[in-house]
Write a structure and sequence with these properties.
Length: 121
């Protein structure tokens, strides 16, 4: 049993290393092909490309895994939406509109200001 987990662990380490290496080479190749010609920036090495890949993953993507956290959130929100009554849905919409800068159309009453907005004015 223990030997099986060691094999699985080694396979995971090899696969992750290969994927990181492949993406690092791809980023390095694209950078060295485009950026020096377009912007006059210097070429980068492999470890700089891996660092750039890691930095972009942290700043733009996070570490949510392959599927990402947004799918789980969306599914959970749909379940909650389906469980709401029409009155609760309307209240939810009005709350979103008041917080997200919705401008009322002609004939529609403006939403009351939230406590934070009233103090700022």
């Amino acid at each position: 049993m223990k030997r099986r987990w060691i094999k699985i662990g080694l396979k995971v380490v090899v696969i992750v290393t290969a994927v990181v290496a492949a993406f690092g080479v791809a980023v390095m190749g694209l950078w060295n092909w485009l950026f020096p010609v377009l912007f006059g920036w210097p070429p980068i090495g492999f470890w700089q490309a891996v660092g750039l890949l890691l930095l972009s993953r942290i700043l733009l993507g996070g570490f949510r895994g392959v599927m990402g956290g947004s799918q789980h959130w969306r599914h959970r929100m749909m379940e909650r939406w389906e469980g709401m009554t029409p009155e609760e849905r309307q209240r939810f919409r009005e709350g979103l509109r008041s917080r997200c800068g919705h401008r009322p159309t002609e004939g529609e009453a403006p939403p009351p200001p939230s406590p934070g907005q009233a103090e700022a004015r």
